[in-house]
Structure formats: C-alpha cells, structure tokens
Amino acid sequence: MIRSWFNSGSPWIWLNAAAVSACLIMIAGVLGLIILRGIGHFWPAQVTRFNYQEPDGQQKIIFGEIIDISETPAAAAVISGFQMAESEETLVQYQIKMGNKDITGTDFRWLQERNIEQQDFPADIMVVERREWGNFYGHLVAVKENGKPLASGDNVWPVVQTKIDETLRLYDEINRLEKKEIGAINYQLEQLRLKSRKLELTNKLDAAAKSGIEKEKADLEEQYRQLQTQLKSLYQKIRSASLVAKTDGGAEITIPLAKVVRIYQPNGMNGFQKIGHYFSKLGEFLADDPREANTEGGIFPAIFGTIMMVLIMSVIVTPFGVIAAVYLREYARQGFTTRLIRIAVNNLAGVPSVVYGVFGLGFFVYILGGNIDSLFYPEAAPAPVFGTPGLLWASITLALLTLPVVIVATEEGLARIPKSIREGSLALGATKIETLWRTVLPMASPAIMTGMILAVARAAGEVAPLMMVGVVKLAPTLPLDGNFPFFHLDRKFMHLGFHIYDVGFQSPNVEAARPLVYATALLLVLVIIGLNLAAIIIRNNLREKYRALEG
C-alpha cells in the first residue's frame, strides 16, 4: 500500500508543495518584518520621563524613547552578574534611546524595570533633530539672537518655530549656492585648466588661446568672489540664532539653530500633527541627502544611483544578449561547439558575483579605462577620468553578470516559435534578416522581457561587485547635473544595497541606524518591484499582441 503510494508520485508532489509553502511563508515573514519596521521608523515616538534609581542608590531623571524590552529568566540573569531577589522570576529591562550623545557619550542604555520608581510622558519634552550628534531630548528654555535673549517662558515655542523656518530657508539657500552655483564655477575652472593643459601638450597654447583662457578664468573668479560674499552674509545670518535647552540632568546648553533640522514635542501632538510629521520625515527620507555618517537624513542619491545603474545596465545587456541568442539559435551550426558555448553560458550564471567585480576592476577599470585616459584624456594625468571605478564600469560589470540570464531566456523564446512561421515568411519573399526583425523577434519579445526582468531583479540587489567598480559610501555629486556634458558616466555613485550594508554593518552607531536599515531595505524591495512591474506590463502586452499569431 505504502509502496504503491510512493510509486504514484503523490508524496513528492506534497513534499514539493510543502517546500514552496515554507518558502512563501518565510518570504512573507521577512517582508512583513521589513514593512513593519520600515514604515514605523518615521512615526513620532513618545518620549518617556523616568525617575530612576541607579544601582549605587543615586536618583536620576532620564528622558528617552523605549526601543526594546528584554525579559531574562532569573537564573540567566544571575549568571550574567545581576543581583536577583528570591521573589523575582524574571529581569525586565528597557532599552532607551536617550540621545544627547554630545553630553552623555552614548545614545542608548538599558534600564531595569525594578529600579524605575515612576515614569510619565510630559507634553513639554522637546525632541531636537540635529545635523550632528543625533537627537537631543530636553526642555526648551529660551531663544537667542546674536547672543541676546529673544524669547523665553510661554512665548518661546512659537518664536523658535519661526526662527527654525527662517534658518532652514537660509540653509537651503546656502546649500544651493555651494552645490549648484559655486560647484558649477569650480567645474568650469577645472575644465579651463584641462583645456589649457591639453593645448600645452599639443603645442597649441599660443598667446591668443592663453589670453582667451585667462579672460574666461578671470570672469569665473569674479563670479566666484561675488558668490562668496553672498555666502559669507548668509553664514552670518544663520549663525546668529540659537536656542537654550535644559537636559534631563538639569544642565542648560546652547544649540545653534544652524545645526537643527526640526524641533517637535511628540507627547503633545494630536493625530493630525503626527500624520503631518510622518509625511514630512518620509519626504525627507526620499528627497534629501544623508547626514550623520548616513545614519540619518535621506537617501535620494542612493535611489538615483540604483535606478540609473539598472537602466544603463538594461540598455547594455539587452542588445548583446539578444544578438548572442539569435546567433546561437538561428545562425550557428548546431554541433559540439554550439553545445559547448551553451554549457559555458549556463555555467557563467553560477559564477559568484564578486568574481565579476574583480574582473570588472582589472579589465574594465584598469585596462580599458586606463587606455581611454591615455588616448583621450592625457591632460587629466595623473588624475584618472575613466581609469577609476565609476557608473559606467559598474553598469557594464552587472551587464556581464546578467548576460547569461538574457541569453538563455531569449533563446528559449526563439525555440518556442514554430518553424512554419519562419518558412511562411521566407516563402512570401522575405529575407532571413527581415524574417528575424519583423516576425521572429517581435514574437520572442515576451521572452526577451522575461530575461530583462530576471536581470533587473538580480542586478538591483547586487553589492559585492559594485564595491569594486564604482559604489561609494557618500557621493558628493550625482552622475546627472547641469554641467556639460550633463551625464557623467565616470563619477562614482551611491547604491541602496551598499547603503544597507554600510549603515547596518559599518556604521559607528549600529543601534541608531537599525530603523534606517529596515526603511532602506523596504525601499529597495519597492524599487525592484516597480522596475519589474513595468517590464511585466510590457511583456504581457506583447504576449497578448502575438498570442494569436503563435497559435
């Protein structure tokens, strides 16, 4: 009975179904954890005031957000060195994000529940998000301008909000001047230097050319001086305002508003204010640059770099993959050599990605990029242009990595097209290339799109090869800007996958960065899903278009 049941194949069907179900449950669990932690990162958490008795008997007031709760059995707690009473069965501890790192030297600490004498949520506790040193928790005392008190007491909160808005506008103007206006001038000055050096190497730097370059340089330097004057004035304005705050220990400190991103009182917020704060933080996360060693702020450069790299990779890999598949299926004589090539292509799909990174660094960057620099950019020496990791080499390396996927998917699509369609086209007088271009390839386009979907899904999540061929922790400028030639393939870039690795494992403050890791991971999943959905929609439309012809 059992033997016949095994011979029927039913156990293997159930085993396969169980394995698929287990995989789906694990995937759903991981995605659920990422979504829960990632979405909740931007919600304003309540700040608790603890009346805490230290182990030495000292009483302290501590402000902080409850991040985690740990329950340890009494036996394990005793082994860990804690003193436990006979009546205590578990040791309950709260992990507190207490901020004020510039004062206390740490962002987090653990509090034992048994030593907490009282805890409440005062509405006047203030959270200050700073550009350096993380959050500050305390009470707002006064606002100063040029060292003189501007407001205090009950009127201080509206005044500080007004001053924060003014300071943020000044900060945006400073950022615009430094990155766009002054950055563009510095770029043009560097181009003039390279132009002069190129003319000098080719013995064409005569008096007229030198005079023209000097005139352009003088004009740019005059613009630079004017912008520096504006910048100095803005810095004087932004440094004039500050706030005075009181810590949980009672000490008063002065915080320059130039270093403040936002101020809010989470315990006193109503539902609409919390929703507004949530979307404000979400917008900052999607549109701003990172700060505080990438553990705070936004990740727009990483989003931009990821999408740009995937698009360039797709543009490169698709034609090469399709051409290779067409040759193998339609033109190559089917024999030992062709079978060997197919085996090699299939094996390439299993090569570790870091090997592609080593190859890309050695061949594309040092050999190909170095020769391009020596032939076309000798004036830039010894600084490399294309002889250093950048967006172009990262895209080509990932195109090489995903090329086998596109070849295999395209070849399978070509194999499914009936031979009668090719013969009918040839019988009507079409050449072989016309048959391929007008009939075969359009019908195989759904398979080509499937290959692209698989390639995008793999390339967007790769990290190891990118660390060698172009990705950096922080890219000061985007590969796309307003400076000619506008699209700079030689620049290094940021990537969501590497950003997750860097923040989660290389950050100086991993505990503080953990929520951002979940949020970034969720965004990476959404980016991959969005790119894949776009390709799937195109593929389905093509499939419907050519389904009748295939039948």
| CATH T-level fold name of the largest domain | MetI-like fold
Number of helices: 16
The Rg value, from CA coordinates, equals 31 Å
How many discrete domains?
A: 3
CATH fourth-tier homologous superfamily of the largest domain: MetI-like
Q: Given the helix and strand composition, which structural class is it?
A: alpha+beta
Q: Tell the overall outline.
A: flat
Largest sheet: 6 strands, antiparallel
β-strand number: 13
Mean pLDDT: 87
Estimated share of beta-strand residues: 5-15%
CATH architecture of the largest domain: Orthogonal Bundle
Write up what this structure looks like:
By secondary structure, the chain is of the alpha+beta class. It has three domains: 48-121, no CATH class; 139-270; 300-550, MetI-like fold (Orthogonal Bundle), CATH 1.10.3720.10. It has 16 helices and 13 strands. It has helices at 2-7, 10-40, 74-79, 101-104, 156-201, 207-238, 271-287, 300-331, 336-348, 353-376, 391-415, 419-427, 432-461, 466-469, 496-505, 510-550; strands at residues 48-53, 59-73, 90-97, 108-112, 116-120, 126-130, 135-145, 148-152, 241-246, 252-256, 260-264, 290-291, 296-297. The strands form three sheets. Strands 6, 7, 8, 9, 10 and 11 form a six-stranded antiparallel beta sheet that branches. A five-stranded antiparallel beta sheet has the order 4-3-2-1-5. Helix 2 crosses helix 16 and helix 9 (336-348) crosses helix 11. The longest helix has 46 residues, at 156-201. It starts with a helix and ends with a helix. 28% of the residues are buried.
Keywords for this structure?
alpha+beta, 60% helix, single chain, 3 domains, 16 helices, flat, 6-stranded antiparallel beta sheet, 551 residues, 5-stranded antiparallel beta sheet, MetI-like fold
